[in-house]
Each structure stands twice: as structure tokens, then as C-alpha cells.
Amino acid sequence: MATEKVKVLGFWPSPFVMRARIALNMKSVEYEFQEENVMVSKSDLLLKSNPVYKKIPVLIHADRPVCESLIIVQYVDEVWASGPAILPSDPYDRATARFWATYIDDKWFPRLFAILLSEGEEAKKAAEESGEGLVLLEEAFTKCSKGQKFFGGERISYLDIALGCFLAWTRVIEKMGNVSLIDETKTPNLFKWAHHFCADDAVKDVMPDTDKLYHFSKFLVSKVKGSAAQK
């Protein structure tokens, strides 16, 4: 089954799509990437493959769809078990990684993105809360990494993918919001980790270009605020 055709439905600016692509790259899996510009329309294949949420990413393996980015990462890890492990083998370490990945998606990233979409005191509050979240993640990194380069040790793993996919957006939001989030002073370990993560062979070819993402983000913010003003 692991040798069947693999396709990823995604859109280049999406950090969640990055997760699926990094996991496949780690396992050296050849796959077709089908660009889905969800800002314009959604293909019939996407709507058929993810009829519940109608969202990217979708991994299609052997003509069967797998949806939701972290579920896809786990699926890739289990199907292509001969490659480097993505989830920790120790049950406690695995549970810890899943806990922090859920925190990133449910708590931290919404506050990060709120910096883009809000103004004044609301934007300032979102930046402060995002920074506080990074301090917590800095502490988590210290405990999980055990003095090594990544959350999972000497190579990237599940939690690295969960947080690292947001690094390009973090840079853009720092620039647009005139804030400092991941830096040598407040989060020195995450600062070093970010450089190691972006330079990894599984990551560097799928990490969005910062300038290109910056221009896209300006368009996105304008579109979101325009839609809100019409309601």
C-alpha cells in the first residue's frame, strides 16, 4: 500500500499544507502537489475528498483521502514506517508532543493571526498573548529537546512540524505588526531552533518565500476586512 500513488491538495501559503509536505519529504515519498487556490474556488476533487470541512490539506493515497494536517502527519508516519519516525516512540513523549501541538493550533496560532486582523489595543493584546505563548513553548522546547537541536532530538519530529510550519507567517506578522516575537532575547532556544528547522532538507523547499507571503498577506487582510465591513 505504501507504494500507491500519493497526491496532496493544498495552497502554497497554507502552514497546514506545509505539515503534510514536510512529513512526506521526511519519509522520501514521491507525491503530486495539486495547487488549490481556495481564495478563488475549490475544485470538485477537494469538495469530494473533504465533504465535511471542505478544507486543505487533503492527502490522497491509493485513491483514499486523509484530511486534517496533524492527522495526515500521523498517517504518513504509520504508513511509511521504514523512514525516520515522526512521532516519539515513548508514550509519554508522544502524549506531550500531541498536547503542545493542540495548544499551538487552538490557542497560540489564533492569537498570532489576530495581530494581522486587528488594530490598536486589540492588536497589542494579541501580540502580548502570542508572545506569552512563545515563552511557554520555549519552556516546552527546553524540556522536550533535552539539550538537542529539535523538540524531538537531533532531527525534526511531530512537534517541530506542528510549530515550524508557522515560521514564515511569524516573520510576516512581525513585519506587518511591527512586533518582535521569536528573538534571541525572549526566546533564545526557539530562535536557534527556527534556523535549524528552516535549513532542514525536508523543510527548505516547501517553506514559503517571506516577501511573496508578505504580499499575499496584505491581500488576505484586505479581503478579510473588506468582507467584514460588508456584513
From TrEMBL:
Reactions accelerated catalytically: RX + glutathione = an S-substituted glutathione + a halide anion + H(+)
**What Pfam families does this protein's entry cite?**
GST_C (PF00043), GST_N (PF02798)
Write down what this protein is called: glutathione transferase
Q: Which InterPro entries does the protein's record reference? A: Glutathione-S-Trfase_C-like, Glutathione-S-Trfase_C_sf, Glutathione_S-Trfase, Glutathione_S-Trfase_N, GST_C, GST_C_Tau, Omega/Tau-like, Thioredoxin-like_sf
One GO cellular component this record assigns the protein to is: cytoplasm
Taxonomy, superkingdom: Eukaryota
The protein's matches in Gene3D superfamilies, at most eight in alphabetical order, are given as: 1.20.1050.10, Glutaredoxin (3.40.30.10)
Supply the alphabetized keyword list.
Detoxification, Transferase
Q: Which CDD domains match?
A: GST_C_Tau (cd03185), GST_N_Tau (cd03058)
So what EC number does this one have?
2.5.1.18
Instruction: Give GO BP annotations, semicolon-separated.
Output: glutathione metabolic process; toxin catabolic process
Q: A single GO molecular function, which one?
A: glutathione transferase activity
Identify the residues that the record assigns to the GST C-terminal domain, covering every copy: 90-219
Q: Where is the GST N-terminal domain?
A: 4-84
